[in-house]
Amino acid sequence: MKRREEPPTRPPKLQRCGLLAAALCLALLAPGPASAAEAPPARAAPSQWDPHHRPDKPDMKALRQIRFLTEDEFPPFDFAGPGGALEGFNIDLARAICAELGLACTIQARRWDTIVVALEAGQADVIAAGLAATPEARTRLLFTDPYFRLPARFAVRRNSVPASIDAAGLTGKRVAVTAGTAHEAWLAAFMPAAIRLPKATDALARQALESGEADALFGDGVALSFWVGGTASKDCCMLAGGAYLESHFFGPGLSMAVRRDDTTLKRAIDFALFQLWERGVWADLVRRWFPVDPFAGDR
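Above: the chain's sequence. Below: its structure in token form.
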């Protein structure tokens, strides 16, 4: 796959979350700055699933195939490849689910503004397109367990890495962040001793780190993984520390959606997703579709 410098943005609407739009979308949902508290530990290679909650495989006698709907303008999750065929993380994950369950699989792209209506009309069985499980969406659809939690990450310059990427190591350090986002709120709540440098846009926050105005940058881990892994960063910077996945600030992540009465299909997908994570298939797909793993440790 041709490497892309970073994924395209999406409109910052509550119904659509992901990549560069995630910070805008989640900022609308996140609380304001809270009183100082100890920051939850970062996870170097976080699990997307609770290993102590193993989904059971349902009786699947009534299932013969799964018809997935996605879109084709949201790389690296789903997009039309050079020959027009659908490619991306969501596409490979949908195929892996069908293989895990031993079911036939079809995947069709639809315009984003028609995708929910098509599912409700019975034209497909599952939406695999990064749909956010908002309270409004939950009144119409049944969502699977999250399959891609949205990580927050720190980036630093390669030639000037703080002693540690935590509250102690960043005390008195200048941390660039996009103003008004959930990431700024998180910094205020958990690392008040860091000197926040709020910037109007993601690009200005990255520029602050690259120029040395900031000692670190805190933001959407997926967008940052594309920046540090692409040519736009001029190899100035790298991800450092672990991933922060607090749903209270950064949202519940991306889920697949089925019709509200398709409980068996929902349970089957949850079972397959857990199996794919446990056997390492999910991690293999992340490594395939992201230039730098947005969940892994220092890069």
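The domain at 151-250 is CATH 3.40.190.10 (D-Maltodextrin-Binding Protein; domain 2).
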